[in-house]
């Protein structure tokens, strides 16, 4: 049975990521009461004719156009239809589920004013794994992604259940639901806020955390093949630099390399090793420290109300507050920072790959080929890694500075939080590919060592696991097929990694 996560207080990024990966989501009774209470406030605002943005006014540059009560349902419906402007390939299942989970969590704070029926319909879609098709491009911050979810709720758009594609009304019918007739403010709330960026950010954090462990494992295997200082990652000297991430990476490397006869034999043959080997704790550790800061910001965002307007007070004394909480500046900056950190991990991995394949520095067969000249071995694999690092460099340019002006000067500063989060996923996919290449190259390097010496227990176990799936490379098959096998091995180890923090 799938794990059930209950929305009571604010969710954290790990819970959003768990829902993205298949956990069910439910509302606690206090959360339900908050949602119902906020709806009563909206109903009171409508009844009294108190002006509220998107409740009884137009949106964007039309915010001063008053909408009479008879047309407020039409306003909500029209907002969904007109804001469904996304283009491009659809988000993956996990990404779409993450956005939906963050959206529900935002409503559960009790300041949006959507009806409980609307939130329950979203939960029904999510828990039935009936996933709206959300175009991935066309957002400067929010709006278009969320509108694609709203479309399905009103019987339009498309959804996927497994491999089956259904129209919005067919998807609802299968789940025993009728298309919603949205009430005042619901159309705006369904497209508003930062759940798109927050959901994507939570999933990016989960992927990053998994790849941290693989990055350390790959670095340890490369170091064992090429390094010479047996105590390069000793605890006492590393502690001289204040960094929780550095300490964690140092411990990981010591665990991986404990008892290595290979390092014991080569110890002291160089005064110090190249930076791509020696500085692994400093570089990987800095990325982990940046990760911690980003995770804190994402959790803070999940604890925040990001709808505009927010409603408060009571049905007897209703309040509506127009503010800019839907602007995702904090998330945009955080995701830009995570993009650079992840790209840096990829860059140092590619440098280690280059050292493994370069006979001028490795002391091994050129390009890790058993028959150099006739065979090219890992020569072009390093080219691939270099190309992906270059692509990451382009992707890591800050989205939060892209700017732009929309809605007839009404929205004249844009922070691009959703695109910032989206491009982290592209960089992470490249990092995973590069680490797969490094792991395979390191395993090949073990096979080509001039002397048979005992590996560390940790690296020996990982070597055996990889070789049980992927044999030594002899220019006898397309190399990218090996990369795909290695990535599947990495992805398949996720459950074990959650419990132990290690790839094995």
Lay out the secondary structure.
Blueprint: E1 4-7, H1 13-20, E2 24-27, H2 29-48, H3 72-83, E3 87-90, H4 93-107, H5 116-127, E4 130-132, E5 135-137, H6 144-153, E6 158-161, E7 164-167, H7 168-174, H8 186-191, H9 195-226, H10 235-238, H11 244-257, H12 261-266, H13 275-278, H14 280-302, E8 310-313, E9 318-321, H15 329-357, H16 359-362, H17 379-395, H18 417-447, H19 457-467, H20 479-492, H21 494-500
Parallel strand pairs: 1-2
Antiparallel strand pairs: 3-5, 4-6, 6-7, 8-9
Helix pairs in contact: 1-4, 1-9, 3-6, 4-5, 4-9, 9-11, 9-14, 9-15, 9-18, 11-14, 14-15, 15-17, 15-18, 17-18, 18-20
Pfam families: Lyase_aromatic (PF00221)
Keywords: Lyase
GO molecular function, one term: histidine ammonia-lyase activity
How would you explain this protein's 3D organization?
The protein is mostly helical. Helices cover 57% and strands 7% of the residues. It has two domains: 4-192, Orthogonal Bundle (Fumarase C, Chain B, domain 1), CATH 1.10.275; 201-308 and 320-500, Fumarase/aspartase (Central domain) (Fumarase C, Chain A, domain 2). The chain has helices at 13-20, 29-48, 72-83, 93-107, 116-127, 144-153, 168-174, 186-191, 195-226, 235-238, 244-257, 261-266, 275-278, 280-302, 329-357, 359-362, 379-395, 417-447, 457-467, 479-492, 494-500, and strands spanning 4-7, 24-27, 87-90, 130-132, 135-137, 158-161, 164-167, 310-313, 318-321. A three-stranded antiparallel beta sheet has the order 4-6-7. It has a two-stranded parallel ribbon with strand order 1-2. The model has no long low-confidence stretch (mean pLDDT 93).
């Amino acid at each position: 049975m799938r794990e059930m996560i209950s929305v009571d207080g604010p969710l954290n990024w790990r819970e959003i990521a768990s829902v993205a990966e298949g956990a069910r989501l439910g509302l606690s009774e206090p959360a339900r009461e908050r949602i119902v209470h906020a709806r009563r406030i909206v109903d009171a605002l409508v009844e009294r004719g108190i002006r509220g943005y998107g409740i009884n006014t137009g949106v964007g540059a039309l915010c001063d156009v008053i909408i009479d009560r008879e047309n407020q349902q039409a306003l909500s419906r029209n907002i969904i239809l007109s804001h469904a402007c996304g283009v491009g390939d659809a988000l993956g299942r996990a990404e779409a589920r993450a956005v939906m989970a963050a959206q529900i969590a935002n409503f559960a704070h009790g300041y949006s004013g959507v009806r409980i029926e609307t939130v329950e319909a979203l939960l029904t879609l999510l828990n039935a794994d009936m996933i709206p098709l959300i175009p991935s491009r066309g957002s400067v911050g929010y709006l278009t992604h969320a509108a694609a979810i709203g479309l399905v709720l009103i019987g339009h758009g498309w959804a996927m259940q497994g491999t089956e594609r259904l129209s919005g009304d067919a998807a609802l019918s299968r789940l025993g639901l009728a298309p919603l007739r949205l009430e005042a403010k619901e159309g705006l709330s369904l497209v508003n806020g930062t759940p798109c960026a927050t959901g994507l950010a939570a999933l990016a954090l989960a992927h990053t955390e998994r790849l941290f462990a693989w990055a350390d494992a790959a670095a340890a295997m490369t170091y064992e093949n090429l390094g010479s200082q047996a105590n390069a990652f000793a605890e006492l000297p590393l502690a001289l630099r204040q960094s929780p991430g550095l300490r964690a990476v140092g411990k990981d490397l010591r665990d991986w390399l404990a008892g290595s006869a290979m390092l014991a034999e080569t110890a002291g043959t160089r005064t110090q090793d190249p930076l791509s080997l020696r500085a692994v704790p400093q570089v990987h550790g800095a990325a982990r420290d940046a990760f911690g800061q980003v995770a804190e910001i994402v959790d803070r965002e999940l604890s925040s109300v990001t709808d505009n307007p927010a409603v408060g007070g009571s049905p007897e004394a209703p309040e509506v507050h127009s503010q800019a909480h839907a602007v995702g500046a904090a998330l945009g900056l955080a995701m830009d920072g995570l993009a650079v950190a992840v790209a840096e991990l990829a860059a140092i991995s590619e440098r280690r790959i280059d050292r493994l394949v370069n006979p001028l520095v490795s002391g091994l067969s050129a390009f890790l080929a058993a028959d150099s000249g006739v065979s090219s071995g890992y020569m072009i694999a390093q080219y691939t890694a270099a190309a992906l690092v270059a692509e990451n460099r382009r992707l890591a340019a800050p989205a939060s500075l892209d700017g732009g002006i929309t809605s007839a000067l009404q929205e004249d500063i844009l922070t691009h939080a959703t695109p910032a989060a989206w491009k982290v996923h592209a960089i992470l996919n490249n990092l995973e590919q590069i680490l797969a290449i490094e792991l395979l190259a390191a395993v090949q390097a073990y096979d080509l060592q001039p002397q048979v010496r005992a590996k560390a227990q940790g690296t020996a176990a990982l070597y055996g696991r990889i070789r049980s799936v992927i044999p030594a490379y002899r220019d006898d098959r397309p190399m990218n097929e090996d990369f795909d096998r290695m990535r599947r091995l990495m992805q398949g180890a996720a459950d074990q990694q959650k419990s132990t923090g290690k790839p094995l």
